[in-house]
């Protein structure tokens, strides 16, 4: 896939920023997988390992209930799943060990979910050649955007937990035609529900026992 995947190495560091455009919704954006996993009961939806054909530029990819549509590419918009073993991402990525969704040009990919979700996360691969962003949508409304600055050139994470359903997300970066960016390990989930403390469970149990005892006494008094 010489025209789709180019090899190079860069050294950078990363700083993350995020913003939300929907103030009426309760939204949490995540830039670490550990934070997302702590807040969400997650299910891996797509790691692209089973996708075929790999290393082939396509006009659109539909896989595991998600439609990936590109808006940039060379010579026309295209999207591809790169097989493991490439060194054409950022220096912090090194040689890839998994399959990664990317394009032959500057990456700008819209992912539309067949079923809306309240928690969505995925790995991002950066090239250090300009800012990149992951934007989450509910219909036409922007729920939130995570922005990775120009010097980010490693593997990072983008995720959202929202009480308004996510219907799509968009991955956009710069100069992917020179050095690839991409996404991997798309995950859905639901918010982790708090487990009552043991003392709370004990009080609840005591209350149920007391209520049952009162009902029994009322029955006895009437007999």
The CATH topology name of the largest domain reads Jelly Rolls
Integer-rounded radius of gyration: 23 Å
As residue ranges, the low-confidence spans are: 2-21
Shape, principal axes of CA atoms = globular
Write down the CATH class of the largest domain. Mainly Beta
CATH architecture of the largest domain: Sandwich
Query: How would you spell out the order of helices and strands?
Result: EEHEEEEEEEEEEH
* Contiguous helical run count: 2
Q: Estimate the helix proportion, in percent.
A: 10-25%
Measured by DSSP, the beta-strand proportion falls in 35-45%
Mean pLDDT: 84
Task: Please tell me about this protein's structure.
- There is one protein chain.
- By secondary structure, the chain is mainly beta.
- It has helices at 33-39, 198-222, and strands at residues 17-19, 27-30, 40-46, 61-63, 66-70, 80-82, 100-102, 108-125, 132-138, 141-148, 155-172, 182-191.
- It has two domains: 17-192, Jelly Rolls, CATH 2.60.120; 195-223.
- The strands form two sheets. Strands 1, 2, 3, 4, 5, 8, 9, 10, 11 and 12 form a ten-stranded antiparallel beta sheet that branches. The chain has a two-stranded antiparallel sheet with strand order 6-7.
Q: Can you describe this structure in just a few lines?
A:
With 223 residues, the chain is mainly β. It is 14% helix and 40% strand.
Features:
single chain, 223 residues, mainly beta, Jelly Rolls, 2 domains, ten-stranded antiparallel sheet, two-stranded antiparallel sheet, 12 strands, disordered N terminus
């Amino acid at each position: 896939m010489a025209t789709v995947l180019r090899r190079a190495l860069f050294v950078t560091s990363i700083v993350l920023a995020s913003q939300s455009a929907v103030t009426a919704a309760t939204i949490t954006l995540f830039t670490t997988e550990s934070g997302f996993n702590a807040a969400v009961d997650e299910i891996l939806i797509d790691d692209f390992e089973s996708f075929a054909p790999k290393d082939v530029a396509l006009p659109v990819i539909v896989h595991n209930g998600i439609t990936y549509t590109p808006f940039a590419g060379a010579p026309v918009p295209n999207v591809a799943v790169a097989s493991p073993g490439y060194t054409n991402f950022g220096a912090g990525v090194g040689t890839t060990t998994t399959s990664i969704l990317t394009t032959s040009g500057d990456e700008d990919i819209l992912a539309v979910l067949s079923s809306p979700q309240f928690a969505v996360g995925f790995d991002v691969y950066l090239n250090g050649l300009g800012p990149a962003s992951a934007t989450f949508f509910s219909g036409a409304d922007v729920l939130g955007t995570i922005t990775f600055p120009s010097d980010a050139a490693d593997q990072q994470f983008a995720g959202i937990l929202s009480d308004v359903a996510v219907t799509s997300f968009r991955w956009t970066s710069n100069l992917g035609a020179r050095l690839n960016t991409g996404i991997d390990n798309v995950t859905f989930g639901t918010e982790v529900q708090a487990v009552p403390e043991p003392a709370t469970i004990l009080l609840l149990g005591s209350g149920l026992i007391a209520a049952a005892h009162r009902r029994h006494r009322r029955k006895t008094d009437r007999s």
